[in-house]
Amino acid sequence: MVDGHNGPILELKGVSKHFGAVKALVNVDFEVRAGEVMALVGDNGAGKSTLVKGIAGIYPYDEGEIIFEGRPVSIHGPADTADLGIEIVYQDLALADNLDVVANMFLGREEIRVPFRLNESVMEKRTRETLHSLSVTTLRSVRQAVAGLSGGQRQAVAVAKAVMWNSKVVILDEPTAALGVAQTRQVLDLVTRLADRGLAVVIISHNLHDIFEVAHRITVLRLGQRVALYEAAQSNQQEVVEAITAGTIETVPGMAK
Amino acid sequence: MTTPPGLEDRPLEPMTEVSNPTVREYLDEYWTRVKAGDLGSLPIIGGLIVVAIIFATQSPVFLSAANFVNLTRQTGALVIIAIGVVFVLLIAEIDLSVGFVSAVVGVSMTLLLRESGPDWAWWFVIPLVLSLGAAIGFLQGFIVTKADVPSFVVTLAGFLGWSGVVLILTTEFTDSGTILIQDNVVIGIANAFLTDFWGWVLAIVAVASFAGLQMARRLARSRAGLPVKPILIIILQVAALGAVAAFVVAVANSDRGVPMVALLVLFLLVFWSFIASRTRFGRHIYAIGGNPEAARRAGINVDRVRIAVFMICSFMAGVGGIVLASRLRSVDPAAGGGNLLLNAIAAAVIGGTSLFGGRGKVVSALLGAVVIASLDNGLGLIPNLPSGVKFVVTALVLLAAVLVDSFSRRAQRASGIA
Ligand SMILES: Nc1ncnc2c1ncn2[C@@H]1O[C@H](COP(=O)(O)OP(=O)(O)O)[C@@H](O)[C@H]1O
Ligand SMILES: [Mg+2]
Known about the structure:
Chain A is of the alpha/beta class. Chain A is built from eight helices and twelve strands. The longest helix of chain A has 16 residues, at 181-196. Chain B is globular.
């Protein structure tokens, strides 16, 4: 997983994205290393979700390069992203309410028994094992539809879905926004554990307290531009808040003219 | 089994939930779900029993063996068309063209079979016209997905256009407009009966397959260390199915026998249920109905699945059209019109398929069609009843079904059990 080179495992170079007249991303650089938790912060509408959706292959970037493990890659759809070993937990979770937990965990990657029958018992077993290893014990049944789950349970299912696959990069878009204290704790613990095992973790959050607890570095977006990049250990909440609300492109280290 | 990365350091404690439920726990669990609004087929089966009792008391003919067999034959085409409608509803779309698409296929078949005309063999004509049905579905589905036009509009255009095609085909190629079917195999589809012996064979094979499948699934689950259904429940289910199958075959055999079309319907129900609930393609259909964005992000080719669903719908409409033509032994310019479209959609909805997408089963086509046909048939048997009553009653049942769907959805949300 950590294959000798110490460069970023995932790197974006000069990516831009327009929605009509709206410039959601303007020439943004971004990177995350294996074993690191990279926080991505910014005000509402700063372009965080758009950045993630570009990596996900949902809204391909208009311009710019995606470099994975040192090689330029082209991502045309969500399947490409999954093939690279990048898993994304979306802000809206993207779960199908009418399907049960098992079906959601394996959506798009169902286990098949030859010739083409779903292998339900294998999928159910892996679902149980994964949820169990994440200490998700509040689910009544893995065969219940997601519609009936609480916000925290839904988040747990979405995170479990992302880590069940042998991923190298896990991206979490506001994973704790809808959670109570105890469940936030669990997700943050999980984030730290994933990084300790050598995964690259990108976490988007508005809660700077949480971020300083788990992140190694912090990327700040403002109005679609990267306005700051901090080492968490050498920064503080106040500095980050200033960058979020008033940062300019000149403040990015190495980017000033 | 791969452990998720980052979690290997945590010992896997034995999973506590794996203990198998007792019969009592199993039934409690079922009852909890019902109370929470997951009614499944309960309302419709209850409704059917009520309908049967009412008509049985009103007319001795209703529960007679002859009427039962007639009912089965009349319902066949409707069930088949409604199966296709279930699929379209599952992806939260609609197909208003099924009535006339069924007629286009039925009329094309009849024309191609004409002894005066091309006089082609049935085994060549039937696959050919069914492909025509699928092609119509492809065309409509392609426009819906690629041009992003609501299926309501596209298939409304189909409704008008294919009705015109039916009119042209029946009137331009004949003098009278009515074309008779002379091929005995095609007539047999809806008019032949299984002998008593083969009726029993069918019942035994059906029940044995069900039992075999249940046991195979139980074995696979217990091998994987998953909780399994109590064996007593399986025995009871098999016994119940066996009793129903035996009753149906006994009643049918006391009249003309099990209609051939019942065999066809049974095969189609099993086949499409399998596709919907046991294959990856079927899983993706439900996902698209539940959350198309989630399906897209999961890497599912949403457009392709949607086009395939429209093809299934038109294909099944075609099969229904062939059965209808066979039953009437002819086609005419009125084919595919009347209440066929509305009944097919109503059947799917009354049977429990949600108009909002993602919820429903293939078997709801059967349940709903049986309700509609029973009302039609039963109300027809009551003397001096104005014929308009039939429509009013069917409308009320449809409304009730939609309300049950809506309320059970709400109950499921509120209870946190879905
Ligand atoms: N699908 C879209 N169509 C049009 N505009 C969009 C779309 N997605 C995002 N935007 C716009 O792009 C900008 C960045 O949005 P987003 O990435 O969601 O911000 P964030 O996640 O940082 O709150 C916003 O101005 C938003 O309105
Ligand atoms: Mg966002």
